[in-house]
Amino acid sequence: MKPSDTLRQDISFVTSNDGTRIACASMGRGPTIVRAARWLTHVSRDPESPVWRHWLAELSSYGHLVRYDLRGCGLSSRDVPEISFEAWLADLEAVTSKLEEPFTLLGMSQGAALSIAYTFRHPERVKRLILFGGYAKGLLSRGQSDRTQIEAATLTNLMRLGWGQDNTAFNQVFTNLFIPDGTQVQHDWWRSLERETASAEVAARTMDVLHKIDVSCIAAELNVPTLVLHARGDRRIPFEQGRALAMTIPGAEFVPLNSNNHVLLETEPAWSVFCSALSGFLGDGIPLAGADAGITTAEREVLVLVAKGLSNPDIAAQLGKSEKTVRNQVSSLLEKTGLSTRSELIVRTLSGPMGQTP
């Protein structure tokens, strides 16, 4: 990937209540979307990642995207005295402490449970809740059978032995839990991220906490518009956990996705379904192109900024692209939508999803 294609972002740090420094990244403009911390992120590397870049492009097209690295991971403090669910919650509170308006909170994987706990504690701060590939109960909280205890202990012990190492059985199994349908390039990126984002000991301590999560009781008490999405073939978190989560939260909308991946990849059909559900749920954001229009994620980034009235030079500066690239993408948008002018493109985007008659 060329450097000019990397999404632009600002990185800063906040201090949690125990002195831990948490690395935060922000991109985009408009209503705020906060992505609660999940595992295997590195805010400085994600914008160029073949696994995460399309997520960032999609989410930041709706507004101001704020995300951060888990304590002990990425650019956040590595040598941390405490790794616990309460500590993670305190970190999220520190990240959001300066946000003045209610925001959309996105929780992926264990970030879903964290988002639920935050919303329960601060209902006035969360405008909407999006939960993807999440669960209310960790592995050991779902039952104390011999099988689950052995599975939990085995995974944690294997982490201490194989985390971040090349050509290990653990490395291959762990990567396949998250992106089994990924390309070799994506698998290699995932493995390199293990080495760069956390030590084996931090990974094992983090996994121990994940196994014991249980927010099922407070999930039933939430009163906020909620969208739950889960891949049917998710190998990391069983589909049944996502469905149970949607059934527990009052009024939650549930969208099953036909994928085997815990992290959706841009090339799979489920990604377009996810984008469509996101567009419908966020409502007051700009309606974006559906899969039928054949518009790419990169073009969608440009489209949302065109609709906001930005010029090609301004769009190029914000997205870190050349003006020629932006000009070509605007031309492609006009061709794909059958429109003739930039003004028509803006009107169609604001009036309804692209590819449909307004």
TrEMBL record:
<dbReference type="InterPro" id="IPR029058">
    <property type="entry name" value="AB_hydrolase_fold"/>
</dbReference>
<dbReference type="InterPro" id="IPR000073">
    <property type="entry name" value="AB_hydrolase_1"/>
</dbReference>
<dbReference type="Pfam" id="PF12697">
    <property type="entry name" value="Abhydrolase_6"/>
</dbReference>
<dbReference type="GO" id="GO:0016787">
    <property type="term" value="F:hydrolase activity"/>
</dbReference>
<dbReference type="InterPro" id="IPR016032">
    <property type="entry name" value="Sig_transdc_resp-reg_C-effctor"/>
</dbReference>
<feature type="domain" description="HTH luxR-type">
    <location>
        <begin position="288"/>
        <end position="353"/>
    </location>
</feature>
<dbReference type="GO" id="GO:0006355">
    <property type="term" value="P:regulation of DNA-templated transcription"/>
</dbReference>
<dbReference type="GO" id="GO:0003677">
    <property type="term" value="F:DNA binding"/>
</dbReference>
<dbReference type="Pfam" id="PF00196">
    <property type="entry name" value="GerE"/>
</dbReference>
<protein>
    <submittedName>
        <fullName>Alpha/beta fold hydrolase</fullName>
    </submittedName>
</protein>
<keyword id="KW-0378">Hydrolase</keyword>
<dbReference type="InterPro" id="IPR036388">
    <property type="entry name" value="WH-like_DNA-bd_sf"/>
</dbReference>
<dbReference type="InterPro" id="IPR000792">
    <property type="entry name" value="Tscrpt_reg_LuxR_C"/>
</dbReference>
<dbReference type="InterPro" id="IPR050471">
    <property type="entry name" value="AB_hydrolase"/>
</dbReference>
